[in-house]
Amino acid sequence: MSEIPSRLPIFPDSARVTGGMLTVGDIPAAALAEDFGTPLLVLCEQTLRARAGAYHRAAPDALVVYGVKAFPNVALLRLFASLGLGADVSTLGELEYARRAGVPPERLVVHGNNKSDEELRAAADAEAAFVVLDALDEVARAASAGVRRVLIRLTPGIDADTHHAIRTAHHGSKFGLPPEQALAAIASARRAGLDVLGLHVHIGSQLLETGAVAMAVDWLAGFAAGTRERLDWTPDVLNLGGGLGIRYVEDEAAPTIRHFVASLLGGVERAWNLHGLPLPRIVLEPGRSLVGDAGMTLYRVGVVKSASETRTYVAIDGGMSDNPRPQLYGARYTALLANRAQEEAAGYYTVCGKHCESGDVLIERVALPEPRRGDVLAVPATGAYTLAMGSSYNGVNRPAVVLVAGGEARMIRRRETLDELLAHEV
User: Fold this and answer.
1) What secondary structure, in 3-state letters, does 304-367 show?
2) pLDDT surpasses 50 at 2
3) Which domain-ending residue is among 240, 271, 286?
4) Total-model pTM
5) Domain assignment present for 189
6) Does any domain span residue 203?
């Protein structure tokens, strides 16, 4: 099938077509579907290691912390910790994932726009490297909870070129503090005895260009110069958040990790030198760009239904319960039939889920060989913000997750059972 070579780059690094079958981690995808059932989220360890390595090479002196919200999993966090990464957490639950994975305290960053007193106490107990203050009232509560090392999150009023739901630094954002409130927070935190180490900014998620982040870096340098004059304080730490996007379909392009990070670090050096500021320690919080294209989801094809002259539905055994991104963000995906990966396309099909919503459509239009019941459909770039945002809508149990490498597959999250689905019923 002539389209396969151009599609494989969107799949994990180890993905190949061998003997007409899609393989990942040297294992046929159809065999994974048979052994572990479907839907099945497959994570490629080769890709995970490569992305972590790319961040370390691009920013060898930075603290790189994985944004746990992209996909929380203890085994995944253990792998990243072994590769020198930390964890960026925003809730009590995410913090517990990191602690059970053994992420060292000096690599823990605690966020949250509405942190409870319990969460602040847990951050203090965990001896997290940084707690990011996101509201004026957090200053006193953080001090009372025993927190000591803090960053102040800023809202610079910059609109990133991404979906409106995942912009986070625009005017009116629920995240961070506008400049005058941030100045007040810095002064208040210092009076409260907190060690105010630096600043934090996050522009948004699924960024496919660097312009907005470059603007934020310039803005931050000006703000830091202002704090030196008004408060006799300069940031030792600059947390630039994450947000780097990935390719989901063939007509998208995304910066490489190397290019994205180089533009950030180069911008910081230029802007800080321009204002005569000492260069800060950099913290980066990648999520999607570490795990997104390491994942692919396998589904079993069920009903194939011609609904009109122009639309034929291919129904799969999952959908919006394991991947709500199309419904939330209008996200686009591609796919191939893993067990018939080199057959010629017979036409264009709409891939839909099994849930009781007309909007439960995973892919509006994709070229496939004529699908048949029992085929295995492989959807790439599903490692981030899919299962992590999933649900049990229609009483559908959540899928398993396997980590693959070198011909071996290891289950790192088992499939939810019906008993577990009903475990909280009274």
Assistant:
1) EEECCCCCEEEEECCCCCCCCHHHHHCCCCCCEEHHHCCCCCCEEEEEECCCCCCCCEEEEEEE
2) no
3) 286
4) 0.92
5) yes
6) yes
